[in-house]
Amino acid sequence: MSKPKRMHPAFILFHVIRSLRDTILPFIAAIIAIPKEHFFFVIIGLIALALVFTIFSTLSWWRFTYEVTNDELRIESGIFIRKKRYISKGRIQSIDISANVLHRVFKLAKVQIETAGSGAEGTLTAIKLSEAEDLRTELKGYQTNDVDLEKTEETMKTPTVPFFQISNKRLFLAGSTSGSIGVLAGLFAFAASEMEQFIPDDFYDNTVEWVVGLSFALLIIVIIVILLFLWLVGIAGTMIKFWNFRIERHEKELFITRGLLEKKQTTIPLNRIQAIGIEESIIRQPLGYAKVFAEVAAGSVEEGDEFSSVLFPMLKESEVEEFLKTILPTHAHVDGAWHAIPKRGLSYYLLRTLLPVCLISVPVYIFFPGFMWAVAIVLLLAFMLGYLSFRDTGFQLEKKRMLLQYRRISKTTMIIFHRRIQSIEKKQHALHRKQGLATLCVSILGTNSVGAHYFLKELAEADADKLANWYSHRKRVEDMDYSKNEKEK
Length: 489
Prior knowledge:
The protein is 42% helix and 26% strand. The protein is α+β, with helices and mostly antiparallel strands. The chain has four domains: 134 residues, PH-domain like, CATH 2.30.29; 71 residues; 159 residues, PH-domain like; 48 residues. Helix 1 crosses helix 3 and helix 6 crosses helix 9. The chain is globular. The termini are far apart. The C terminus is likely disordered.
């Protein structure tokens, strides 16, 4: 590319749609607040806003150019104020290519370029797919096995690099156990409450009377049908996001391809991985499955995309070690003995989970005494969660890395190398000091500006000091053996 180029004109359509999407909430609020007789003005305002967005999107497309020289990528943009950005090829860490439904209609792709320490540096929203591949090859000097977003499964069965790919059966199981039904149920309840304003009063009142008049058994069936529907929606959402999920290990990067409606290729530079996590949700753990994810420095690989750090959506526990040996061999061999939390710390874990439920039970007892049976069930679940959190908290210490294990609701194991740790902080209050306990906070660079923090609560004070000394004076303690649990003093 020796001359400045513009993106595909479809950029105008994409930009208008994104602008309208970003302003849809104020319009929904206006529709709810404005009387029905003034609804016509809301429609006129929406049309006028779309026209303004179209004009500015056209100008933005015309004023946006990009060019690749021998040493850098040059991007110029701005309608009234011109911005010139020069991205050195040597500073480029990752180049991600994605294509949603609209992109694929026009045979286009979105290219996102990230540099070390600054996150997303340049984005080309709509260029031809072939140009996107040529651009990545020219900027990074490589081409992945998955250069074609429309590549068939048959061609993907002959890889030249180590890889893992999820099966449709495993993906369906991942969606079935994703736990998203709770979130969807909340959204469904909110949407149902807001729909009241748009439903005729007679119809709404008759529906409420019909529901109230249902027998208890029939009401339970209706609830089960709704939950089943939400469960299926959760499965569909997971399968759409992770369809044909595939991760490849290259010399300096990991390449991830996924997506049904929006096909994405994500690059994760190995030198930006700060920690590896193994997450076992409360639903998947009894079934023996886990998710593997990465903490990546300098912003999310795809800004605002929580799935960008997922290295594999669902693996059997017995497959995790093989996965790490294949994809990230330096993080493999997670099979040592864990230093447990002393028994005197159990009361703190139980208190943290039981206290909120006890506080909620007071107004329930006063205003809804007939529902105390539900409070009793929640108390039992909170007790179990507190005990599991106590039982699953611990650490392993090796010469060059530490392994932390804790539970909020899901059980999580973090593998962190010494050189990736930014700080270790020891905390104690008066009761901790009296009982010989301490809380340790381990901080690393994370997917946002504040980093990622991991807490080991109610450690034995001697163990907390060992971890702090290992971080501060690793050379003096690297020959010590931490493979066995010490007896509680």
